[in-house]
Amino acid sequence: MEHGTFTDHSSATFSLTEEDHTLANAVRFTLNQDPRVTFCGYSIPHPSDARVNIRVQTTGDPAREVLKDACQDLMLMCRHVRSTFDKAVDEFKISNPVEEMNIGKK
């Protein structure tokens, strides 16, 4: 849900349900890498409430579009990390084959 004004689209607060620090901090980091962002922060209203509020203020671009771009950038980063990890696991498995397990044998 977006909370903002109808006249100034360069700042808004977005409320994400069923999320916590894990996603919020990653989105905040990604947003702060964008030169269009003048301020970004997040808060969790209450520990028992699974909701995160992310505040975005930009140099003039619509905050909604900047947030969308940041989420897409974060997805690309996650894909890169996953593919790098999978490649490293495959290389490890090739260089260190699993030996036969002789359970119960001495």
From TrEMBL:
<dbReference type="GO" id="GO:0005736">
    <property type="term" value="C:RNA polymerase I complex"/>
</dbReference>
<feature type="domain" description="DNA-directed RNA polymerase RBP11-like dimerisation">
    <location>
        <begin position="12"/>
        <end position="83"/>
    </location>
</feature>
<dbReference type="InterPro" id="IPR022905">
    <property type="entry name" value="Rpo11-like"/>
</dbReference>
<dbReference type="InterPro" id="IPR033898">
    <property type="entry name" value="RNAP_AC19"/>
</dbReference>
<dbReference type="GO" id="GO:0006362">
    <property type="term" value="P:transcription elongation by RNA polymerase I"/>
</dbReference>
<dbReference type="InterPro" id="IPR008193">
    <property type="entry name" value="RNA_pol_Rpb11_13-16kDa_CS"/>
</dbReference>
<keyword id="KW-0539">Nucleus</keyword>
<keyword id="KW-0804">Transcription</keyword>
<dbReference type="Pfam" id="PF13656">
    <property type="entry name" value="RNA_pol_L_2"/>
</dbReference>
<protein>
    <recommendedName>
        <fullName>DNA-directed RNA polymerases I and III subunit RPAC2</fullName>
    </recommendedName>
</protein>
<dbReference type="GO" id="GO:0006383">
    <property type="term" value="P:transcription by RNA polymerase III"/>
</dbReference>
<comment type="similarity">
    <text>Belongs to the archaeal Rpo11/eukaryotic RPB11/RPC19 RNA polymerase subunit family.</text>
</comment>
<dbReference type="GO" id="GO:0003899">
    <property type="term" value="F:DNA-directed RNA polymerase activity"/>
</dbReference>
<dbReference type="InterPro" id="IPR036603">
    <property type="entry name" value="RBP11-like"/>
</dbReference>
<dbReference type="GO" id="GO:0003677">
    <property type="term" value="F:DNA binding"/>
</dbReference>
<dbReference type="GO" id="GO:0046983">
    <property type="term" value="F:protein dimerization activity"/>
</dbReference>
<keyword id="KW-0240">DNA-directed RNA polymerase</keyword>
<dbReference type="InterPro" id="IPR009025">
    <property type="entry name" value="RBP11-like_dimer"/>
</dbReference>
<dbReference type="GO" id="GO:0005666">
    <property type="term" value="C:RNA polymerase III complex"/>
</dbReference>
